[in-house]
Design a protein that fits this description.
Radius of gyration: 24 Å
Strand content: 15-25%
Pfam families: Glycos_trans_3N, Glycos_transf_3, PYNP_C
Strand order of the largest sheet: 4-1-3-2-5
Catalytic activity: thymidine + phosphate = 2-deoxy-alpha-D-ribose 1-phosphate + thymine
Structural class: alpha/beta
Keywords: Glycosyltransferase, Transferase
Family: Belongs to the thymidine/pyrimidine-nucleoside phosphorylase family. Type 2 subfamily.
CATH architecture of the largest domain: 3-Layer(aba) Sandwich
CATH class of the largest domain: Alpha Beta
Protein name: Putative thymidine phosphorylase
Largest sheet: 5 strands, mixed
Shape: globular
CATH topology of the largest domain: Pyrimidine Nucleoside Phosphorylase, Chain A, domain 2
C-alpha cells in the first residue's frame, strides 16, 4: 500500500471482505498473514471500498518487508495463536511480580512480533518507574539477551562505555572508542538511535560513516580495527530492546528497571565483560538527584554482577549540555574538532571524553591506577586517536562530512549578567522542534555555558533547521521560553 507505519506490521482489508465476515475481524484485530513459508502478525485497519478489492489484503511497508513476495501473490489470513504471556503483564498491573519464566515468555512473544503496539505499551507502562525489583530486572535482562544473538570475541578483556543519557550534546562515545581502540583494547560499541533526545550516538556517528552494519561486517570491523561504533538495531542483539524503544519513544519516558535491562542486555549480547557507565546528574538531566543516582547505580551493579559483567559507574556533571552541538550533524562537527585537535574544539567535551577514556584504559588493564587519563590525553594529542577513528570509519564504509543546515537563527541575551543555569530538557525540546534527529543538520549550536559573562545582545545559541517552517516552529517555542538560559546580574 506504500504506507510507512515505522516498524509496525499493518494489514488493510475492506469491512465487507469475505475474510472479515468469516473470521470476525474488525479494526485493530490482530491477524496472522501468511505468504509461502513466511508469516507476520499484523494489526488490522479497515479501509473504504475504493482502496481495495474485496478479495485483496493490503500491507504496510513493515509487513511487506517481513513477508517478501510480489503484488498479487495469494495470502492466508487467520487468527493468531492466543497470547498466553500477556497474562503476566496483567498480573503485574494488578500488583503481582513477574516470574523468570513469565518474562522469558513475554520477551519471546515481543521478539516474534506477537505483541501489538498497545500490548507493548502496556508492558512498558507496567514496568515504569521503580515497578521492577532487582530480581525482575535480572530476569528481564536475561530474557532480552536470550531472545537474540550473542557475540564472542577472542580477547579476554572486552570493554564498552555507555551513557545513561538525558544531557544534550555529550557525544563522548566515538572519542572514547577511538582512544580505547588506539590503546589496543577491544571495544565493539553498539549504540542506539535517539529515544527521547535530539540525537543518539548512532545518529551522530551516521553523519560520519555507515552504522547500519550487519553482524558479519561488524565483526570484520572489530577484528580489523579493535573497535566500531554501529547501530545495534541492525544486528539482532537484544532485539526486544529495539522493539520496546519503538514504544518508549512516543511515550517519552524510561523506567529504571528497563533502562538497566536495556543497557546490560546490549553489552552482554555484544560480548563485553567490562562496562563503564557515564551517569550525568543534574536538576534537568535524566538522573536528577544523588538519591536517584545511588538507586540506579545499585541496580546496574546488581544486574551486572549477577550476569558476569564488571560494571563501573562514573557520575558526571549533568547541570548543562556538553559541547556546542545539539543534533546529529552539529554533534559530529564537535567530535571531529576534538579528535583532530582543532584549536577551537569544545574543551568540556574533550575533557569529559578524556576522563572516561582514561578510566576505560584502567578498567581494561592498559593503564595503572591514576595513569589512564594522561595516557588517554597523549593518544589524543599525538594523533593516534584520530588515525584510529579514521580507520574505523573507513572499515565501516567510508568517512564522510556532516551536512550543514540551510536555515539558522540566533537567540541573544536580553540583559547583561552571568549565565546562571541552562535547562537541558527545554533546550533538547527546541532542538527536536527544529527537526532533530529526523532532519540530521537541525539542532542547536550553543554559544555559552554556565558561569559565562554575557552582555545584552550577545548570542546565546544559534538554531539550525533544514526548512523555513521547522525553523519558525522551533523559534516560536524558543522565543516564548527565554528562561531556557537563565541570566542573572553579577
Amino acid at each position: 500500500m506504500g504506507i510507512n507505519t515505522y516498524q509496525e506490521p499493518v494489514a488493510y482489508l475492506r469491512s465487507d471482505s469475505p475474510v472479515c465476515r468469516a473470521q470476525g475481524f474488525d479494526a485493530h484485530s490482530r491477524i496472522r498473514v501468511g505468504l509461502g513459508d513466511r508469516a507476520v502478525i499484523a494489526t488490522l485497519n479497515i479501509v473504504d471500498p475504493p482502496l481495495l478489492a474485496p478479495d485483496r489484503v493490503g500491507l504496510s511497508e513493515a509487513a511487506w518487508r517481513a513477508l517478501g513476495g510480489a503484488d498479487g501473490d495469494p495470502a492466508q489470513l487467520s487468527h493468531p495463536e492466543p497470547l498466553e504471556s500477556f497474562s503476566q503483564v496483567r498480573g503485574k498491573v494488578y500488583g503481582h511480580s513477574y516470574s523468570r519464566s513469565g518474562l522469558q515468555m513475554v520477551i519471546a512473544d515481543i521478539t516474534a512480533g506477537r505483541y501489538s503496539e498497545l500490548e507493548m505499551a502496556a508492558f512498558v507502562t507496567a514496568c515504569a518507574g521503580s515497578a521492577l525489583s532487582l530480581d525482575e530486572t535480572i530476569a528481564l535482562t536475561e530474557a532480552m539477551v536470550d531472545a537474540g544473538q550473542r557475540l564472542h570475541w577472542p580477547s579476554a578483556v572486552v570493554v564498552d562505555k555507555h551513557c545513561v543519557g538525558g544531557l544534550p550534546g555529550n557525544r563522548t562515545t566515538p572519542i572514547v572508542v577511538a582512544i580505547a581502540a588506539a590503546a589496543g583494547l577491544t571495544i565493539p560499541k553498539t549504540s542506539s538511535r535517539a529515544i527521547t533526545s535530539p540525537s543518539g550516538t548512532a545518529d551522530t556517528m551516521a553523519m560520519l560513516a555507515p552504522v547500519d552494519l550487519e553482524l558479519p561486517r561488524m565483526r570484520q570491523v572489530v577484528e580489523r580495527e579493535g573497535g566500531c561504533v554501529v547501530w545495534g538495531g541492525a544486528m539482532g542483539l537484544s532485539p526486544a530492546d529495539d522493539l520496546l524503544i519503538r514504544v518508549e519513544r512516543p511515550l517519552d519516558f524510561d523506567s529504571e528497571g528497563q533502562l538497566a535491562a536495556s543497557i546490560i542486555s546490549k553489552k552482554l549480547a555484544a560480548g563485553s565483560n567490562h562496562l563503564l557507565i557515564d551517569m550525568p546528574v543534574g536538576p534537568t538531566a535524566k538522573v536528577r538527584s544523588a538519591h536517584a543516582a545511588d538507586t540506579l547505580a545499585r541496580r546496574l551493579h546488581g544486574v551486572g554482577e549477577a550476569l558476569g559483567l564488571n560494571v563501573r559507574v562514573t557520575r558526571t556533571d549533568g547541570s548543562q549540555p556538553v559541547g556546542r552541538g545539539i543534533g546529529p550533524a552539529l554533534e559530529a562537527w564537535d567530535l571531529l574538532a576534538v579528535l583532530q585537535n582543532q584549536a577551537g574544539a569544545p574543551t568540556d567535551l574533550r575533557e569529559r571524553a578524556l576522563l572516561l577514556a582514561g578510566q576505560l584504559l584502567e578498567i581494561g588493564g592498559k593503564a595503572g591506577h591514576g595513569e589512564g587519563l594522561p595516557q588517554a590525553r597523549e593518544l589524543l594529542r599525538n594523533g593516534s586517536a584520530w588515525r584510529k577513528f579514521e580507520a574505523i570509519c573507513q572499515a565501516q564504509g567510508g568517512l564522510r562530512e556532516p551536512p550543514r543546515a540551510a536555515h539558522t537563527q540566533e537567540f541573544t541575551a536580553g540583559r547583561d549578567g552571568r549565565v546562571q543555569s541552562i535547562d537541558n530538557r527545554r533546550l533538547a525540546r527546541i532542538a527536536k522542534l527544529a527537526g532533530a534527529p529526523a532532519s540530521p543538520a537541525a539542532g542547536i549550536e550553543l554559544q555559552v555555558h554556565c558561569g559565562d559573562r554575557v552582555e545584552r545582545g550577545q548570542p546565546l545559541y544559534r538554531l539550525h533547521a533544514q526548512s523555513p517552517g521547522e525553523l519558525a516552529y522551533a523559534a516560536a517555542y524558543a522565543g516564548a521560553h527565554p528562561e531556557t538560559i537563565q541570566i542573572t546580574e553579577d
